[in-house]
Amino acid sequence: MKTRKSSFFIEKNVSMKNIFIVVLFSLVFVSCGMDINDDDDGVFTITSASYSSDGIIPEKYSCDGANISPHYRWSSAPTSTDSFVLILDDESTPGCSTGTSACRHWALYNIPSNINSIKEDFDPNTISGVAIGDNYKNKAIYAGPCPPTTDQHIYKTTIYALDTTTTIASGTAHTRASFEAAFSSNILSKATYQGRYK
């Protein structure tokens, strides 16, 4: 009886130790998993510190103000992304049309895959290879919101994650619709952020 009792306590202690180890590893695993999920929810997203989503774009980013480009940041791009393209256009009427006939305001091509933000008043010369597309005035610079009337216009900025490293020349004119038509086979994902101005 004494031997059987000792054996019972030994088996019980070993069993409790194993349970403790399993629980400990489970907690570590779950903790790591939560950290990963907090950093990357898997949804390709674009945001801005310059104006809120669907909010009013401040005057300084328009033709009525300093006409400087806003800040944008994107996250959770597909892991196979080779480059990004960012395009801002206006499909509001009166003054602009839709699709390939939208008013072009800004296009940044050939953005390297290790870049995830564009700061306010962005200088393309700070990132090697980045090119600017022609705006609605056929100039390769940023053109802020500038509706021809007092009607409110909606300005949409789309970031595209591509499976190729683009070499689009500066001055190439694209709306979001025309770019999507030309590079449909290379677009892995896209995310859009919009603001309003009048």
Q: In words, what does this structure look like?
A:
- There is one protein chain.
- The chain is of the alpha+beta class.
- It has two domains: 39 residues; 153 residues, Phosphatidylethanolamine-binding Protein (Alpha-Beta Complex).
- 23% of the residues lie in helices and 26% in strands.
- Strands 2-9-8-4-5-7 form a six-stranded mixed beta sheet, with no helix packed on it. The protein has a three-stranded antiparallel beta sheet with strand order 1-3-6, with no helix packed on it.
- It is globular and about 45 Å long.
* Low-confidence runs: 1-15, 17-39
Biggest sheet architecture: 6 strands, mixed
What's the CATH C level of the largest domain? Alpha Beta
CATH T-level fold name of the largest domain = Phosphatidylethanolamine-binding Protein
E-strand count: 9
- Gross morphology is globular
- Written as H for each helix and E for each strand, in order along the chain, the element string is HEEEEEEEEHE
Number of helices: 2
Descriptors:
2 domains; 23% helix; 198 residues; 6-stranded mixed beta sheet; Phosphatidylethanolamine-binding Protein; 3-stranded antiparallel beta sheet
Give the gist of this structure:
With 198 residues, the protein is of the alpha+beta class. The chain has 2 helices and 9 strands; from the N terminus they run αββββββββαβ.
